Structures are given as structure tokens and as C-alpha cells.
Amino acid sequence: MSDRNVLYTGKTTTTGGRDGQSRSSDGQLDIKLSPPGSGKAGTNPEQLFGAGWSACFIGAMGLAARASKIVLPADTSVSTEVDLTQGSDGYALQARLNVSLPGLDRDVAQQLIDAAHQTCPYSKATRGNIDVVISLV
After folding, report:
1. What pLDDT, on the 0 to 100 scale, is given for residue 99?
2. Do residues 17 and 84 both lie within one domain?
3. Would the pLDDT of 91 be above 90?
4. Residues 33, 56: one domain?
């Protein structure tokens, strides 16, 4: 581990894998899991990853906006598509983030997206590891 200052630790336990259950230590998360496309009740790791990344990315855009004295639109949204893929080297992920910043000049919006992609912990974790496309919509 690094010498970085830990701000928060999310603790979860999953049983049963993709056909299981995930719970957080504080009880705030308690969800049923199911394989993607199975039609069974529950969510899957790809959806959870997309939800976490999009929330984090909006937070990073908010920080970039405040640093530039820009007001982030109240209806800012990030729609995330996380693909589970399979190739000759096994399973992998790829992702697309579609960012909506209504009312902002396109150049300003792109600057916020670029800054967020440099600072968002999810973006940092995936950089160079999976294919990622970020689009201003």
C-alpha cells in the first residue's frame, strides 16, 4: 500500500458471484446479483461499475468547474455503457461515457470533461487498462 491518506474505505462482501448477493458493512448496499442478459432479478458488476464511475466523474467535473469558476448545470448527467467482452486472451471490459452538460458552451464543456478524466479515480484506474471513449452529447 502507499503512503496516501485514506479518506474512505468502502467495505463490501459478495457471496455467490454473479448469481449471488452483495452487502456493504454499513448496510447501505444490499443487492441481488445476476449474470448480464440472464433475465434474472438483480444487477451485475458491469452496471455497478458504470454507476460508480459516472457518479465519480460528475464529482470530478464539479471540482474542475469550481476551479474555473463555472457553474455545473443542475441537470448534468453521465450515461455509462460498460461492455463485458471476450477475446482470445479471455474476458475484458470496455466502456463509453456519454456526458451531458446542458447549456454550457461546447468548448467549455469539453474542457471540464478532459479535466475530470485526468482527476477521476475511476478514470485513473482504467487508463491504459481498458478501451474508453468519452463523448459530449
Report:
1. 98
2. no
3. yes
4. no
Q: What average pLDDT is seen over the chain? A: 96
Task: Give the full edge-to-edge strand order of the sheet including 12-15.
Answer: 12-15, 21-24, 30-32
Domain residue limits at 27: 1-43
At residue 28 the predicted structure's pLDDT band, cuts being 50, 70 and 90, is: very high
C-alpha span between 107 and 21 (Å, rounded): 43
Which are the contacts of 12, defined by CB distance < 8 A and separation ≥ 6?
22, 23, 24, 25, 29
User: According to the model, what pLDDT value does residue 3 have?
Assistant: 85
Let me know whether 75 and 127 are in one domain.
yes
On whether both 25 and 68 belong to a single domain, the answer is: no
Which residue, chain included where needed, has cell 471513449?
Answer: 133
The verdict on 5 and 51 lying in the same domain is no
Return the number of other C-beta atoms located less than 10 Å from residue 116's C-beta: 24
Number of domains in the chain: 2
Amino acid at 45: P
